[in-house]
Amino acid sequence: MPESTGTTAYVTINDQPAFSTPTGRSLLATLKARDIFIPSACGGHGVCGLCRVKVLSDAGPHTSREEALLSAADRLAGMRLSCQVMVERDLKLIIPNDFFHAREYKAEVVALRDLTADIREITLQLRSPPVIDFKAGQYIQFRIPPYAAVRRFTERAYSIASPPSAHNRLELEVRKVLNGVGTTYIFDHLRLNTPVTFNGPYGNFFLHENDLEIILIAGGSGMAPMKAILLDIKERSIRRKIRYFFGARTRDNLFLLDEMQSFEQSLPDFRFIPALSRPLPEDQWQGETGLITEVLKRQLADQYPGEAYLCGSPSMIQACINVLCEKGVANDRIYYDSFA
């Protein structure tokens, strides 16, 4: 391999031939310029901790953000956050092969629908490339352009809500976050017929092929990958016992109830179990109440033999994992993506 100069470095990935690249950029940006897309839900700002790659060569000291987001064992094993590594010298990397399947896509917004006061459904028609292959449960990274006081491009991760059979069209379900860069753009600035860019697909959160019983647990926009998984199960005529626990505060926070009722009628052993943590008197709620973890404790048998799929806030996911472990569900049968 040629030696680096002050303005050029050489990067080797998975024992492939090295390529030259200008110095002075982050490793994340360097790889993106080569059409190698590394997951980064925060858009490369060192907050999400997703953009991990294994660096086998000296890449300089760890930053404070890496020390906060990577365990001592991870750092010892050579894991780095690609957004925090500046390409200033030759680097040798190990990148999961799945990352090479991600691509950049151009699409157009063809439908917008408010599902609740703070959850919006976005439908994207793919333009270039015109189709995408993904697994139900995976997510994309949506590019947020500069707007108002936001001066630079960034990206946010959103789960796909439509089934893999809809190769040329994607649905997203996005929950509004107070002062969120991505959701403020989507709720206040995104319009019909707007051209958009995203990359993906990403994630190891998808249905595992076996005959085990299934528990789905979600809240808010965590509905998105669960809907995709259920549509995929229905289309492929998969026959498994499924219980879907969905947490919301009040009745106004529930949505897609007609779709869930349709699944109960069309899937042989599916039950949707919504729970309200703070039902209002006017809700006249007769269903389950309390936090979704409390409902899970009441409903789930000890030594549960199946597997669980979770989507929600990090705190909700961890609380549900604790309950599942108490009920005898092994960690290798609990699936989720940590990009919330």
Description:
The chain is an alpha/beta fold and 340 residues long. Helix content is 21%, strand content 30%. The strands form 3 sheets. Strands 9-8-11-6-7-10 form a 6-stranded antiparallel sheet. α5 (223-235) links the parallel β12 (214-219) and β13.
Task: Please tag this protein with its features.
single chain, alpha/beta, six-stranded antiparallel beta sheet, six-stranded parallel beta sheet, 17 strands, 21% helix
Q: How is this structure best summarized?
A:
With 340 residues, this protein is of the alpha/beta class. The protein has helices at residues 27-33, 64-69, 72-76, 181-188, 223-235, 257-266, 292-299, 314-326, and strands at residues 8-13, 19-22, 52-55, 79-81, 91-94, 103-116, 119-128, 139-144, 154-159, 169-175, 195-202, 214-219, 242-248, 270-276, 288-289, 307-311, 334-335.
